[in-house]
Amino acid sequence: LPTTISLRSASMRARERAEKMSWKDRCALYYFGIELLQKSAMIFMTSRAMDETRLSGWGLVFCHWSIAAFVYACRPWRVVALAFGKLRVNDCLNKSEFVAAIMQGCIPCLALIFPVQRDENGVVKENLTYDAMTAVLTMLVSALLLLRLFVFVAERFATKRRKLRIVHDPIGCMQNVHDELLNLAKRGAVVK
Predict the structure, then answer these.
(1) Residues 6+ apart with CB under 8 A from 10
(2) Burial level of 160, CB count in 10 A (0-12/13-18/19+)?
(3) What is the structure's pLDDT at 2?
(4) Which H helix or E strand runs over 83?
(5) What is d(CA 125, CA 129) in angstroms, rounded to the nearest whole number?
(6) How far apart are alpha carbons 26 and 70 in whole angstroms?
(7) pLDDT at residue 160, rounded to an integer
(8) Residue range 144-153: average pLDDT?
(9) Mean pLDDT score across all residues of the chain
(10) Is 92 helix (H, G, I), strand (E, B) or coil?
(11) Are 83 and 142 in contact (CB under 8 A)?
């Protein structure tokens, strides 16, 4: 056989590259599989088998906070920096996912720390603690929804670019590439 022909397949070469990756990069690569396992644990913690046990609530808190720890350690989402006026947030998607998981873990944690009190008929007693916890939990859930909505909408607008339609309009496409490279050069950006 000639020496120029490689005896290794593409999958063998890919496995060799994957072996050189750090553990964080490997975990980030399989993020959706790991998150699926964590979400399955959450479903189990809220099932009838775990209902009415202390493990159910604290297990749910553990699942959410383990997702937060995983996102903090591995940074599975692509790095996107969003700027809001003079405020610049680097790695916005990973940070928002981390904060969201912490907040999601706080909700059952607070519910377990301040349980609902019931009278002898099983009716919930409304008192100052009940009202305060309802307000805090409502604010947490609202903040969580607004955080995710704001970040994902801002990310969509931040990455909105002119489309490169090289098949339909090759001259216009090359002009767009030329304009983008010229803008990068004017800003002094380093292109890798």
Answers:
(1) none
(2) exposed
(3) 53
(4) strand 82-84
(5) 10
(6) 12
(7) 63
(8) 82
(9) 80
(10) helix
(11) no
CA dihedral 120, 121, 122, 123 (to 10 degrees): -110
Q: Which of 56, 33, 29 is nearest to 45 (CA)?
A: 56
pLDDT at 145 over 90: no
Alpha carbon dihedral 80, 81, 83, 86, in 10-degree steps, equals 170
So what's the pLDDT on residue 163? Answer: 61
Residue with tokens 């940074």: 75
CA dihedral 141, 125, 131, 111 (to 10 degrees): -40
**Residue written as token pair 């775990």:** 50
DSSP single-letter state for residue 29 = H
Taking only the tens place, the pLDDT of each residue in 156-173 is: 776 666 566 677 778 887
Give the separation between CA 47 and CA 49, rounded to whole angstroms.
Answer: 5
Q: Token pair for residue 27? A: 């975990």
CA pair distance 134, 145, nearest whole angstrom: 17
Percentage of the chain beyond pLDDT 90 is 5
Q: Return the residue matching tokens 């304009």.
A: 179
For residue 148, what is the DSSP state? H
Give the residue carrying structure tokens 């959706």.
Answer: 32
